[in-house]
Amino acid sequence: MVSDVSRRQQIESTASALFRERGYAATSVRDIARALDIQGASLYAHVASKEDVLWSIVSRAADRFDAAVTPIARDRTLPASVRLARMITAHIGVIADDLGNASSFLQEWRFLSADRRAQVAARRDGYEAMFRGILEEGIAAGELDPLMDARLDARALLSALNGVAGWYRPTGALTPAQIADRFTSLSLDGLRRRPGLSYPAPDEGGRTLR
Amino acid sequence: MVSDVSRRQQIESTASALFRERGYAATSVRDIARALDIQGASLYAHVASKEDVLWSIVSRAADRFDAAVTPIARDRTLPASVRLARMITAHIGVIADDLGNASSFLQEWRFLSADRRAQVAARRDGYEAMFRGILEEGIAAGELDPLMDARLDARALLSALNGVAGWYRPTGALTPAQIADRFTSLSLDGLRRRPGLSYPAPDEGGRTLR
DNA sequence: CCTACCGATCGGTAGG
DNA sequence: CCTACCGATCGGTAGG
Fold first, then answer.
1. Nearest CA in chain A to B156
2. Count of alpha carbons within 13 Å of B43, Cβ hemisphere only?
3. Among residues of chain B, what percentage have pLDDT more than 90?
4. Average pLDDT over residues B24-45
5. In whole angstroms, what is the distance from residue B40 CA to residue B27 CA?
6. Is the peptide bond before A200 cis (omega within 30 degrees of 0)?
7. Contact residues, chain B, for A92 at CB < 8 Å
């Protein structure tokens, strides 16, 4: 049982890396088994089905994003823009911490069965709503621009953040925290030069933050 | 021959819609044929292989993005920030104009053979470099903030733009041009409220700009 | 564009 | 975790 748990985790870790590289549909059960040096049929001593492996990976990833970001979003003692900065850092941290897991969640969840797909869609909608909610709080508090489209902006932000899973390399020049800081500056202040403005902003999301 | 050309286009259009819905690897040749009301084997009167269909779709999409965006990027009579705004509009226009084609290009190109994949990767790198180049020109001209990371910012922007292919619906509330305008504002000015600043900016990328 | 067919591979099971 | 095996489906071909 104890060894079964860790073997199961090995399977999910190996499978998520393969799903990231080749996609779920193009990865066979025997591909996963070969990477673990066992026979294809032997996998079924540990998992009920191929889809079950994907479901575990996707569920775990969703849990990780929720666990990292939700407490930040809910901390009303912090200004919305500071929470947003920390949510960005947390989200990118989850991605960088396990690229295969996050990529499988982000890209391969559509290969789940209809009911599981619906569950994931609901969780993703809730997650997006959390980002949208922070933007709306920021508008209400006068921190963020009232003309923005919170729904569209939350989608744009999450697309950009999730794109990190596609190109991030642990050996790259930028750390996850540096990437997150730049994303925060970009989101809050944009690309345009504003000569009269202090830059970075002293206490909210600038590149000196955290 | 004439009918072959249009039949070929029908096949690619049908296939790209299925690839968008289910993914290339999970779409069988017979799925494509069934959608066209012909037998699976009959497809091979028109195409050499399943991968060939994907290759045509991906090449066409790459051509469309290039044709729409490159002339704007090269027009040095316009300020970089104006070109950026128009590139964003053009890019989103290509996506909205043919969701299946664009989505297949963006998501399914990794299922091409190694050499074709390398060709697509090179084109995508060049396309990204074009956006990065505009940002660098904008910095050099004093329009854009010199502290930005052009490479990272170009990736963030393109990820956000490409994300539109995942959620855009022609029946939605926002037109492609409206989405593009909001993305432009978001990119250039960010989310933060700046009470002293005229908003939208009078002649560059504000929401009144085309 | 069809019927008939091919070898290969798929996810998964039986029985140890 | 293995060997042996299953029916289904895959991309693709032959021959009309």
1. A160
2. 26
3. 89
4. 98
5. 12
6. yes
7. none
**For the segment 31-60 of chain A, residues whose CB is within 7 A of strand C:** 31, 40-41, 44-45, 48-51
Which uninterrupted H or E stretch holds B78? Answer: none
Closest-approach residue (CA) in chain B for A185: B190
Region A73-90: what's the mean pLDDT?
A: 98
Contacts of A135 in chain B (CB under 8 A): 191
User: Is the alpha carbon torsion for B181, B183, B189, B193 positive or negative?
Assistant: positive
* Higher-confidence position of A203 and B112: B112
* Helix, strand, coil share of chain B (percent; to 5): 70, 0, 30
Give the C-alpha separation, B121 to B105, whole Å.
11
- Interchain proximity A135–B207, CB inside 8 Å: no
Topology at the third CATH level for domain B50-191: Tetracycline Repressor; domain 2 (1.10.357)
Distance CA A189, CA B186 (A): 9
- Write down the pTM of the prediction: 0.92
pLDDT-based confidence at residue A195 (cuts at 50, 70, 90): confident
Interface test with B, best of A193, A194, A204, A209 (most B CBs within 10 A): A193
The pLDDT tens digits of the residues spanning B43-66 come to 999 999 999 999 999 999 999 999
Q: Taking CB atoms and an 8 Å limit, are A23 and B193 in contact across chains?
A: no
Least Cα distance to B57 among B4, B3, B88, B11 occurs for B11
Region at A151 (left for phi over 0; alpha for psi -120 to 50; beta for the rest): alpha
**A2 or A97: which leads in pLDDT:** A97
- Tell me how far the alpha carbon of residue A129 is from its chain's centroid: 14
Question: Where are the extended beta strands (E) located within chain A?
Answer: none
Say whether B148 sits in a helix, a strand or coil.
coil
